[in-house]
Here is the input.
Amino acid sequence: MTRAFTGTYRGTSTEERRADRRRRLLDAALDIIGTQGLTALTVRGLCEQARVGPRFFYEAFSDLDRLTSELLVEIQDSTLARARAAVADMHGTPADRIRAGVAALITDLTDDPRRARLVFAQAYGNEALMRTRFAGMHRVAEVIVEQTRLVLELPEGQDIAVATVAQLITGGAAELVLAWIDGHLAVDRPTLIALLGDYAIDMIERLPAIGARVG
Here is the structure.
């Protein structure tokens, strides 16, 4: 009697093996991009490092742009989740909570320099990654708006002002971290985090003045 194939091989299912290959490809891509740069990423080199056959690469991703975009979104999601959790866990003043969120976000990205390089440096010059990066910055801005409203009691009619401040914080912080990664800002990470926390608080404190101008 022929035994039916169950999709299980050496104790793992087809879906588990597929997920494992996908994870290995993403991890290998992060290592290559984060240490050698985006231009060093090729399907052949990626598959060799991940120990995954090329046909399995195309089973998981349509092309390299798709893979790198998904990797960037994954990093953005984990960073935002950590920042939200840090704000929720901090029960101090509004400024304390803002600083906690900033510290968590920057720490999450820079604990692994490869992640920081992908988010802040390697997107330039690649259209797909730039679109994903800009979308991610908008999501960060939306989280800033969300968290600002949770932390502060803002008057009605401040939507435009809050959105404006969020975009200014996001764009300014991204450029400052990029300068730091590239070695153009000679400060240690605690100082960088403190500077960004001060910047975020200063911008949020300017909400009434900005609201008056844009209103």
Notes: The chain is about 75% helix and 0% strand. The longest helix spans residues 64-89. Strands lie at 8-9, 12-13.
